[in-house]
Amino acid sequence: MASITHDLGRTQMLPRWLAPAALLAVAYLVVPLVGTNYLFEAILLPFLALSLAGVGLNILTGYAGQVSLGSAAFMAVGAFGAYNFNLRVEGLPLIASIVLAGLSAAAIGIIFGLPSLRLKGFYLAVSTLAAQFFVQWGLTKFSWFSNDSASGVIDAPPLRIGGLTLDDAIGRYLFALTVVTVLTFLALRLVSSQTGRNFIAVRDNETAARIIGVPVLKTKLLAFAISSFIIGVAGVLWAFTYLRTVEPAGFNLDRSFQVLFIIIIGGLASIRGAFLGAALIVVFPLFLSRLGAFFLGDIFDSGVLDMSQRIVLGSLIILFLILEPDGLVALWDGNIRRIGSALTRR
Prior knowledge:
76% of the residues lie in helices and 2% in strands. The protein has 14 helices and four strands. The strands form two sheets. The chain has a two-stranded antiparallel sheet with strand order 1-4. Strands 2-3 form a two-stranded antiparallel ribbon. Strand 2 and strand 3 form a beta hairpin. It starts with a helix and ends with a helix.
């Protein structure tokens, strides 16, 4: 027992960066060697893009307490912005195009975040919904954004950094992984800084935050800007690395709700929660699809199976939120604590 307790104590004393470092080592070194094209194309690339979008929305909703239903609009601004910067500015590096696209999404986010200075809760959520419809209308109405394509669907530009081309599945995965890693690290630093504490103060009680000297209006707009920047970059990854096309229909209202479900399921005010929620949202429908096709493929057509998957997924989300309203992060941490307590008792 003493030996087990000693080992557990040593485990708890391990540096906090060790687990993320080990996970990144596996992601960079092992996964490219053993992963299949299906793993990259169907699971990892959408998982990375949606995880990053979840990180962005969690900063706004989880930490700053500002509800938004316009995530897909900011993803669309990022995707179309990066496409047009890359197309129309000759010699502009890909990374510069992505940063400028993120800044464009941040500017749009600030504009549609202005109602947060007066509105709260449900009313703010409805006002951010205007961004979804306005951006999608603008991208469809003005063909300039899609380079005058008759269908409105355009091919994503090749991923090139310097003389290196990253158009194969592994290259796109490594590119997306690097972008997500860098922005997630910066998000972690942000939420642990004074700015992050200001976000939490505004979320918990605006009046109290104002009394202690937090600039409430500036903090709200900053939260919208940072969140929209990250979500805009996530839109670039979604279009450039996963879909390989850029079209307004890829960023509809369903996508906004998908990102919102990710942070609710994963856990609000948790960067880890965005990744756990995205993993469930991406993997579980694939599991249901395979399971339904195997058992019911000879009885029902694909349309019925698809609708059944949505019903099952929605029901499980509701059930999960009733049983664990704090999300997968709370469930994960609770299980770790129980395992630690069981080992200690031995």
